[in-house]
Every structure is written in C-alpha cells, then in structure tokens.
Amino acid sequence: MSIIEQLQRIENEARNKVSSAKSVEELEKLRVAYLGKKGELTTILRGLKSLSPEEKKEIGGKANKFKSEIDSQIKDKKEQLADNVSTDPSFDYTLPGRPRRQGHRHLITITMDEVTDIFQRMGFEIAAGPEIESDYYNFEALNFPPDHPARDEQDTFYTEGGMVLRTHTSGIQIREFEKRKPPVKIIAPGRVYRNEAVDAGHFCVFHQVEGFYADSDVTFGDLKGVLEAFCYELFEEGVKLKFRPSFFPFTEPSAEVDVQCVLCGGKGCSLCKYEGWLEILGCGMIDPEVFKAVGYDPEKTTGYAFGMGIERLALLKYRVNDIRLLYENDTRFIKQFR
Amino acid sequence: MKTTHDLSNSSVKIMKIPYSWLKEITGVQWSPEEMEDRLTRSGTAGFVNKHNPEHFKNVVTARITKLEKHPNADKLQVAEVDTGDTTFTVICGAPNAAKGQIVALATPGANLKGEFEIKEIKMRGVISSGMICAEDELGLSDDHDGIIVFDDNTPINVPVFEVLGLDDAIIDFEITPNRPDCLCVDGIARELSVLADKEIDLIKTAPVESSEKASDYIKVTIEDPESCPRYSARIIKNVTISPSPEWLQRRLKDCGVRPINNIVDIGNYVMLEMNQPLHAFDYDRFGSKEVVVRRAKDGEEFSTLDHEKRRLDGDILMITNGKEPVAVAGVMGGLSSEVESDTTTILLESAYFDSSVIRKSRNKIGLSTEASFRFERGIDPNGTATAADRAAALIAELAGGEVFAGVVDAYPKAIEPVTVVLRPERVNKILGTDISDEYMKKTLSGLGMDLEDGDILNVTVPTYRPDITREVDLIEEIARLYGLDNIENTKTNKGPLYSPIHRRDTIKTDLRDLLTGFGFEEIQGTGFAKPKKMLRLEPDIEPIKINNPISDDFAYMRTRILYSLLIATSHNIRHRNIDLCLFELGKVFLRTDKFPDEPEFCGLIMSGTTGATYWKEAYGEADLFELKGILDGISDSLGLSHLNITPAKLSGYDNSCSYTISSGKYDIGVVGRVDRKIARLFDLKQDCYAAELKVGKLIEAHRGIIPFKPLPKFPASNRDVAIIVDMQVSAGSIRKSIAEWGGELIESVEIFDLFTGGNIEEDKKSLAFSMQFRAADKTLADEEVDTVYRKIIKNLEQTYKARLRE
Ligand SMILES: [Zn+2]
Could you give the percent of chain A with pLDDT greater than 70? Predict the structure, then answer.
C-alpha cells in the first residue's frame, strides 16, 4: 500500500471514529492515537525520508491538511459533546433548583397597598395620625357630641389617661384640616380598635382607609365618581354599585355603598348571604359642623369623606371565613397570599 | 367612618314589622321585596324574612285524644293525635302536653326547617309516626319550653303555616340613631307614603269618654320642666286584666315582643305603632292623687319592676306620687304600683322626657329598656296625648274599661316645630345635580313639612323629626328620596396637582420588599399585650393601660415590638412551624405627659433553620450572623452607612448576646439572642434571634444622594494572608487595622476564613484575610504592593502577636 493510500485509509478511519465518539475522553485518546508524537500519522510521515522531493512535498501537504482537519474535527466534536450535558448519566434535570426562601407580605398589607395605590393614583396624599387619640379628635370634632347615642355604635377602648384607642381613622380629617387650607385631598390608612366581642367576623383590632377631599366645589356626584372608579379597579371594570342612605355624625348626606357580589354576580350566594350585594364602605358629604370645628367656612368649602375596612375587603376577596386568622400570624396562612 | 365591620353593632336598632301591618296602614300594594328595596334605597334599611312553606309541609293542627305513659321510658309519653281522618301514634316528651289540646303535628313526609325529615320510627318498642312540635322545631323561635298549644276553637287538620299566618313576611328594619321617627309602624308608613306618592291616614282613635273627669282623680306637677317638658295622663276605670286577643298577641310576637296581658300588651302595641313609650300604673296602688316629676335625692332607694333595688342620685329623673318614687322616668316602673291581675283602675302615663336626661339616668342605674332607648333618641313631644287617646281606646275595647274624660296634660312650654331655610341652588351645588324646585317642594311636603314659598324655602319641620335642624339635613332628605343612585357620577378627576409621597410611607414598602426578598414572612400584631409578659419582657417601661380590656391578653399597649414577634413565634412553633423568619412593621406605645409617643418599629425574629431544604447542601441555623447579614442588607439597600454593633445590656435579650446597632451617629436599634427565660415565658424552647429597628432612625440615617464614583481605570492586585492569633482578638478589629495600615492603596479587606482546632493551639484561632490593592492613576507594580503587604504583616505580628500560617 502506498503512503498516499495509507494516509487515505487513516483519514477515513479517523473521521469515522471521531464522528462516532461518545465522550471527551474517547476523543482525547483518538487525538493521541492519530496525531500524537507516537501516533499513526507521525509513523507514516517517518517513511517520507525515502521519497523524492516532489513526493515529499505532495504527501507532506496532504498530511498537514489531514492533521489540521482531524484536529479541528476533534475540537468541534469535543465542544458538541461538552454542550450536550445529557450525555452525563449522573445529570438529573428533575432535581429541584436551589430554593430562594421567599417571604410574603401579610394579607392585610397586600390589601391595604392595593387600596392606597388606587387612591394615590387619583391624587390622594397619604396622611397618618396617632392610634391613641383624644376624645376631641376621635369624637367631638367629628360631630359626636358627648352623650350622643351615635357614640354607642363605636365600642370604645379607653386608656387610663383618659384617651381612647381610635375607633376610626376619621380623626385624621380634623388633624389635617387644622394643618392645611383647601384643597385637601387625603387618604388616611391605619389601624383602629373596637371593644367588641371577638368572633369569626369581629376582632378588637382592624384596619381602615379613610379618604376625604375638601375644596370649593365638591359634590356628591364627585364622591360617587371616585368610589365607582375605585371599585372598578379593585373588583372589576363595570361592576355595579348601590348607594344606600345611611347615617354618620360627620357626614350629611351619608351613604353606605354595596358592590354587586363578586362571586355570584348578584344572583345570590353564601358570600353575599343571598342578598346579591356586598356592603363595602361608608361615605358622605362632610358635615358643616366638621368644617366649623376646623375653622373652614362651610359656605365656601364642601367636601366628601369615605371609609372602608381593609379586613372586610381581604376576607371577601380571598373568601377567608374567620377574621381571627389574620392576627394569628400562622405562616401557613401568611404564605398563601401574594 | 363606620365600616362594614360594625354591621352587628348594638345601637343600630333592629325593628321587626310584619309586612301585613304596613300594607294595612298604608294601602301600598308593593310586594315585601319591593318594600324592602324601596325603603332601603331611601335610607330605611330593611331585610325581608319569610318562612319557607316547604318546611311546613305535612305539619297540621291535630287534637291529642289520648295520652299515656310510655311503657319503657320514664320521661316519655305516648299520644294518640287525631287529624279528623287519621289517628297518629306519636311519642312525646313535652311536659306541657295534655289530652284534648290542639297541637302542631308533623306527619311522615314533613321536612322541618328543611333539615329534619319526619319518618316512622320505633322508640323503645313503640312505633312513633310523627312529632308534636315546639316553636324551635318549626324554626319559629328558639323556644323549646314546650309544644305549641293552639286555641281550643282552632280547626283541626289545617296546615299550621296557614293557622299561624306564616305567609306574612316580617321585615327587619335597621334604624340608624338619627331616625327615631322610624322606630315605629307609623314612621315606616310615612316613608312608604312619600315613596309610593300615596296619601295615608294614620290611625288616630279617640276613646269614648265617661262623664267623670280624669282631672278630679289625678294632678300632674312637673318640678323639672327642662327634663320633662310634657306629661300626659289618662285614667281608665273598671278594666279586666286578661290575655290579649290572638291578633294582638300575634302582632306583638311578629315584632319580637312577648305578650304579657292586655294592658301591658296595649302599651307595647301603641309604642310599636306610634313610638310613644307608655307606662300603666295601678291607680289604686299609686299612693296619691298626684304625679310629681322630680330628680331623685342622693341616696334615695327604689325597687324597679325587675325586682332590683336601686340606689339613686340627683342625675336620675323620677316619677313620684309626691311622697315616694313610683318609676324611674322613661326607663322602668316600680314594683309597688305595678299592674297586677287584680288591677281595676289604670293611670296611664304618656310623657316626653329630655333625651340626655334619660341617657344619664339609664347609664347611672345601668339599665337600658325599650322605652329608654326611644326617649334617648327623641320622640315627638306633640304626640303624647294622641298616643294616650289611642291606648285608652284600645283598653276600653279590649279590657272593658271606662275612660274618664280628658287628658291631664302638663305641658308648661309647648315645643314648637323648627323652621329651616332651604336654598334650592344649594341642594344642587352639594349633590352635583339639577333637581327642580318643584321636586324639592313636593318631596318635603310629602314628608309632612310645611313650606313657605319664595326664592328660598322656609321649611317647617314636624316635631317627630328631631334630626332636621339645618339646611343640610333637608338636603339629605331630598337626596335620599331623589335616590342616591340617580345622582350622576362625575367622570373627571378633581383636586390639588401636588400630592407628595412621604418617606414615612415608602420606607415601609421598601422594608417589606426587602425582607420578604430575604425570606421573612410579615406578621400583624395586635398592639395589645398581656401585663405579666409585657413587664417581664420590658421591666423598665410602664405601659399604657386599657381601662376596659376585653381580656387580660389585651390589657396593656405593647412597649416593645419584640412582644408581638414572640407571640407569633410561639403560635407557630405550637403548630409545628418551627423554622421561622418573621417581621412586623408597627408602633409601640410609650407614655408621655400629653399624647403618647408612638414610634414605628421594624421587628425581626429568626428561629430554627433559615434556609430552605436543598439537595446540594444543608441549610443554616438561625444565629447572630444570619441576622447581621440581614441587617447589613437593610443598611445597604436603604442607603445607610456601614452598621456597627456594640455589646449592651438590653432587657429581653441574653446579656451575653445583645447589642445596640448604630449607623454613623445614629442609634438605629438593637439585636441579639432572646433571653431564654423570656422565651420560656412564651413557651419557646428553641433559640430565637431578634432585632428591633427604629423606622424613624432608618429614615434619618439615610446618607442622602452620594455622587457617582468613576469606575477604576487600572487593574487591582490581590494578596491573601492567613494568621494565627489569640482567640480573644476580634476579627473586626484586625480587619479595621489592616484597612488603616493599607493606606491609600488598599481598596478592600474581607475575612474569608475562620479556623480553630486541628493543629492550632486551643487558645488560638486562624483568620484569613483577602486584600485588594489598587491605585487610581496607574497599574501597581508587584513591588509596590509587596511593600505595603509586608508592612501589614509586620504590623500584624507586632500589634496582634500574629503568626503567619503556612
Ligand atoms: Zn353572592
């Protein structure tokens, strides 16, 4: 067999073996076997000494071409094998990824954030006030005269020092009005307290968002518009609202707002107690007595106020059946919401 | 603002009124549901309650024809009950069952309350094929005192649903405190009349009077006309006390009032009808011929109808006979003049008391009654005589009495209706509507108001509407009857352009995002604390106490957020959630001279393991360094300068592991291992690491905007060194020294290894540091770095007696 023929044979053989190689290790062995210092090619090339210069040149050229081609074929094949991890039998893609322990905001926070975000986008500024409040800010300035039956509605905790645990965040209205001149457009989220018997629907602590807007020309239509937009965002665009006249000492006219049951669409179900409607907030036009208490002229300033219980919204939305779960802080509960 | 949280609150009065009564008075033909809807939308929230006829299927009237003791059971009886065509054998346990009674019999096929099917059953050897029902079994009330027994002349084999008139709906009205006029049938009827635009005549019967004059028998003296502006009295002689007729009893029952006897029932009936509380005295036991209304004397004693002896004082208004008290005015009558079965002459009181006086009286004696509730909210001062007439007429009709001529009416200063000015354009300005003057006038006159026309309206308000005193009150009347749902919604946004967001609020969002990202779950504590635990945890601060706590667990306000973290940790561990990373953002409450201080805290607690299960490696245990890493993350993310912790004695934490945290000059909080004795107080056996950060300080300690630093142009050189030093030398101080010794060229020093044991002496440790050197203006030559490095090594050997580790 001539050297050329030998070369041809090795080349074919090498190409086949490289292309069918199964691992990087095997390829490395092939490289050593063909191209190494003691490899077959080297052996062949040793026989060149006996040839004529023309033959040497021809075969030398072919050998170099063969060497570089096989070399690059091995390299390519190695990369191909390295990319393809699945050829590694110990690789099990079904093993779980490294878990990142992810915490969760509390359901009250989730709901509160959702509510305040909506109102902030409408241009309401967030204000805060003390949770231990004076009788003046919690009741008197809000047109709850001492000894008025409306005070009975607010089962109040009293502190030793003659203060009250605020029963609503409405006192922030007074505090902010005192500090500012109209226009004032604010939401006051926060924790409130009621001295009620604790059961699945009631807890002695809950959260409220109170909103109020006082300006030269605020109407009940404005109030309705804002609450409608709010409910469209919180529940669903186009959801139906019902405004029922009601009573709060610090608004007049006052109303309670029902939203069409989000679960049954108004047909009646256990969530809405077969009423078709869910009561979600109270509202009204700010009573002139409140404006008088803060030194605004009720002839020049009108305004609205509304308030809602955050726990109630959270319970409705996630159909949680017991408000106490919110304050037990069981992580199996907390982790369910995001 | 009231929220839906208080749906069940006590002062929203639930008034039960049968639909048939409203229909009878008004002639309005709406269905119960339509009545409910129309009234609710105009401010008188109603809920229709109906009995389901399916639940009364196979329940008929039947007569007990035979009653014998059960042969095998002491407390049971076997009854034969006849429906006219069939006789059923029924086992009965009711003590009030008797032969001859007409009862409610449920026969097989009945499905009581939709949940209890009646079948033929064998009970101790006797087959029972039905049940004689009590009220609770039919869902009529909670009464299980005995079986229902009908009037003797009730026909048998008639559906009980029919006999009891259960096809009538009962409407529960929720009456808000501003609408005392709606605490009666007449009030609701007036609302219906406006809504249906239908004139109605409310019942006003006057009694047929005898020739004897009431004023010859009784005189009324009001000593305190401010507290009792009006007192009307009537005398009715020769009455017979007996049970009320069936129709009256049924109506009272439908309204949730227990029938007593004809006189008491008539009083209640007229109160339900007209909102005028009435009191009937036994004239012969009254003790004099004079009613004197006066304040009680301090220390005076009086026995009320409920057999309670009550101590009085000058805040309490009394009805007396001139010598001694006979009733607490507007609250409750007394035992001595109570109407009893032998009473023949009635002194009927129909009075108007000042609402705040009644409120004070009933608070003082701690007794709230149906009457005091109504007086407190305000009744019609000009309705007392009408109500007395109505009641007297009914007494004459139902108790056979003889009504003396005239109402003895002490009304020293008549209470006149108020006149309120209404500007029609003001209505539309406040509501954002375009309601016509005509609509306003029609609505107000429909509500019984007198109008004097003009550019502005002078509106005279009937005295049964004490809630209307101002223009805005009239605007509310128009709004509620126009229909709030008919007011057009504004579609554009209004208000100030500038509504800033505050760091006070956003920092909480930032902390929540950060901490949940670090794997912490957010909790919500109540803010309350149990005295014993709170004081053990924080003995140095006197907490704010609640005067009227719901329980001992809620008797103090917390002074440390750690309290709530421990409560939550304890709850979780009790429920086998043992690997915990929790945080809370909330206030603590501290005494001051005036308003309490309410600083906001961010509290963190870790216990158990801190990572999540992963097949590649084991997870870490909660310890100080896990928590320090979290704190460093907070500090970096919020833009604070590097945190330092300094050992300190802190209540609640273990003395050997408690530190204050500072960032620059700001003291931002504390961190440490919770004192094991405190932990045990919360039933915690596993170690907890906690931190309490002052949110206000985190805001203050923010470094502000730090100008951009150009990226380095030249490469850095790194050198590592491992040294052996005495155990008590702190890694932090060595690291700080290296950074100083490295001068301008050293860019960072990190501790990358701590090693003890092995071939290291017992009182020594090995620490390894990685240093990075860089110059801003050139590539450092190896020799330059080595010079600094050697200096550091030399200093380490000299200052810390460090030995290089090979
Ligand atoms: Zn529903």
Answer: 97
**A124 residue type, one letter:** F
B464: which DSSP letter?
A: T
What is the domain range of residue A263?
107-334
* Binary contact (B575, A330; C-beta < 8 A): yes
A37 domain-assigned = yes
pLDDT interval class at A153 (50, 70, 90): low
Task: Mark yes or no for CB contact A102/B527 under 8 Å.
Answer: no
ipTM of the complex: 0.87
Let me know: does B5 contact B136? Beta carbons within 8 Å: no
| Residue B696 confidence (pLDDT) | 97
Complete DSSP assignment for B729-781: S-HHHHHHHHHHHTTTTEEEEEEEEEE-STTS-TTEEEEEEEEEE--SSSPPP
Q: What integer best gives the mean pLDDT of chain A?
A: 90
What's the average model confidence in pLDDT over A280-290? 96
Considering only the beta carbons, identify the residue of B475, B516, B524 that sits closest to A329: B524
Residues 6+ apart with CB under 8 A from B290: B218, B219, B220, B221, B321, B322
The runs of H, that is alpha helices, within B285-379 are: 355-365, 370-377
Separation between Cα atoms, residue B631 and residue B654, nearest integer Å: 19
Task: Return the pLDDT at A85.
Answer: 62
Using alpha carbons, select from B559, B526, B562, B563 the residue that is nearest to residue B545: B559
Q: Are residues A250 and A123 in the same domain?
A: yes
Distance A240 CA to ligand 1 centre (A): 13
Say whether the peptide bond before residue A183 is cis (omega within 30 degrees of 0): yes
Q: Cβ B11–A149 below 8 Å, yes or no?
A: yes
Residue A69 domain flag: yes
End-to-end CA distance of chain B: 74
> How much is the pLDDT for A290?
97
The predicted pLDDT at position A154 comes to: 66
Position A174 confidence tier, pLDDT thresholds 50, 70, 90: very high
Strands of the B746-755 sheet, one edge to the other: B746-755, B764-773, B717-726, B803-804
Other CB atoms within 10 A of residue A199 CB: 11
- Specify the number of domains making up chain A: 2
Q: Is B16 exposed, middle or buried (0-12, 13-18, 19+ CB in 10 A)?
A: middle
Contact A131 B40 (CB under 8 A): no
Share of chain A above pLDDT 90, in %: 58
A291 and A164 co-located in one domain? yes
In this prediction, residue B10 carries a pLDDT of 39
Q: Which residues of chain B have pLDDT under 50?
A: 1-10
- Residue A273: give its domain's CATH number: 3.30.930.10
CA distance B595 to chain A (A): 7
**At residue B74, what are phi and psi to the nearest 5 degrees?**
-65, -45
Residue-level pLDDT at B607: 95
Query: A265 or B347: which carries more pLDDT confidence?
Result: B347
Q: In chain A, which residues have their Cβ closer than 8 Å to the Cβ of B612?
A: 99-101
